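Record type: ASSEMBLY
Status: queued
Input:
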Amino acid sequence: MLSIKNLHVSINGKKILNGINLEIKTGEVHAIMGPNGSGKSTLASVLAGKEIFNVTEGKINYFGEDLFELNPEERAKKGIFLGFQYPVEIPGVSMINFMKVAVNEQRKYKGLKPLSAADFLKLMRERKELVELNSALTNRSVNEGFSGGEKKRNEIFQMAMLEPKLAILDETDSGLDIDALKIVANGVNKLKTKDNASIVITHYQRLLDFIVPDFVHVLYNGKIVKSAGKELALELEEKGYEWIKKELGE
Amino acid sequence: MNLKLISKLEDEFIYLFNDNLEEINNGAPDFIRKIRQKAIADFEKLGIPDKNNDDYRYTDFRKIFNNNYKKLFKQEKYEVDINEVFQCNVPDLDTHLVLLINGTYYENNKPLENFPKNVIICGFAEACKKYPDIVKKYYTHNTKTKNNGIVALNTAFAQDGLFMYIPENVILEKAIQIVNILYTTEDRMIQQRNLIIAKENSQAKIIICDHTLSEQKYLTNNVTEIFVEKNAVFDYYNMQDEHNFAQKVNSIYLLQKEKSNALTNIISLHGGNIINNVNVLMNGEHCENQTYGIYLADKEQHIDNYSFIDHAKPNCTSNELYKGMLDDKATGVFSGKILVRQDAQNTKAFQANNNILVSDDAKMNTKPQLEIYADDVKCSHGATVGQLDEEAMFYMRARGISKKEAKMLLMFAFAAEVINKIRILPLQERIKDLVEKRLRGELTRCANCTINCYQTD
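Status: finished
Output:
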């Protein structure tokens, strides 16, 4: 579904990604790990279409389409979902209204009628249960005054509402206590089908105890320096990122 | 005689006053004549503010007032029954409706149904003759013609407007809706004077809708005096929805007595040049005041909101919030002053002015001022001018919401904070609807009104 070839990205003239290659097929879960500053979040943002980054080289193909031809909203409507590392607070825009517009824009794109108010609320209720999201939160403004954990759960809730084909979860585990982590992971696992895929970006191995990846990639200095099965995550946890640096001869 | 050299602009008004004095007075009682004479003398001294005036540095009053507007001092006759053409069918907004045309109380206003008998609503000119004692007791008591040339000009010339008197202990459950209609075939200058008195322990809400029914250029210079007495509750909402050739100066003088609660909320949707002056004097303890405004401007429109909140007595609270969005080459000004006098201990006064510049060419000047002479006060002020939050835009787009829709949601959310302060729910809903339409660039004309009182550029 997704094919990244030789991706080079810079911001304000500073090179961040230096030739990424990655193939993702439906039904797969990929974990991307790496030390701080290795370019993990940049990769996620570029996939979602954030415009401040400058793609200097390379291609991304998504279901046969050139991803760079699509703006962020088109990508979202075609099934790409970014779970933000730092979800944005939007005072004055209610969660309900926000979700209603998002769901209906997607339905419109698929040629479906907008959901009726009753059906929409029913869908919200179901999906909220999936991530055990407090009902009161959806009556508030988007992310406004949410705790760190609530924000992350809210991301997974939105993912559950939109049912993406490709979910990119950018450090969804950071700042989560173990109970919240289990709830979030559980939500992700329940949404997994043979037709979708996810990229789980994380700094720590812990999340991968609950979301079992098919592949683990180590990103370092803007390049994928190592790819293997889930055992790589455990090895990293044990030996730390220093080990990778040594292997690379630094 | 003042020998100071005055320019032609002021001269014209003074000649006009002297030449038409009898018509302007039109049988008004002596005390009104005296007030006019003093006002024209004050005007002669003060003139129309220029750019050296600290309060209005970014608004060119002289340009706004310098135009060949026609000024009429005789009662006009209209061939059509305005009641028939104007029907405000804002859903669920059940009000007592009163029409004013070109600044004059419409003579064929329908009688108000189920209206308390002791409440007076009539034209200001009529009130001067019928209720001179009441008018005399209040008129110009809280406006200072000696330090504001524009108010002095209005006081000298204004013949009619709205007069409203709510006696003690009367609670008006339905809001009173005043529709100011501009309807002429020539470019006109209109000076309207409103006097509203809410007596002790009374409660009332008024909604003022400013509309234009014809495309001519207008200059309106209106002054409204509102007296909210002990323990009274009063709401003033003003919806300004005119056209690009409408020039509007709207000065409000609100005086509050002890334990009163007053709110003003000015919703400026459309106009060429709009200048709102809100002056609040809290002249009794334990008053609560809320001063709000929302303004949306685009093209080459200009909006200036000046406010002055005077905490003269202890234990009063004021909350002030103005929010604006400027697009294209629109320009905006906020100038807000809070004065806490030496006696006014335990004052709470809060002021905020937030602006969004939607385009690169829009411009906003904001000047918050606090002047505090008491030592036990809680005050804050803040002003922001910014763009739409790019991070929030991206967040929404990443959920499949189009750029245009995301922008709409953000702008609407920004405006909603002020609209939510409206204490009449159907009006709140209506204004939300209008603001949304305005933001989407659709006509803001009330959907069910039979008149296309809307602008053509």
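Annotation: The mean pLDDT of chain A is 91.
Annotation: The first strand of chain A starts at residue 2 and ends at 11.
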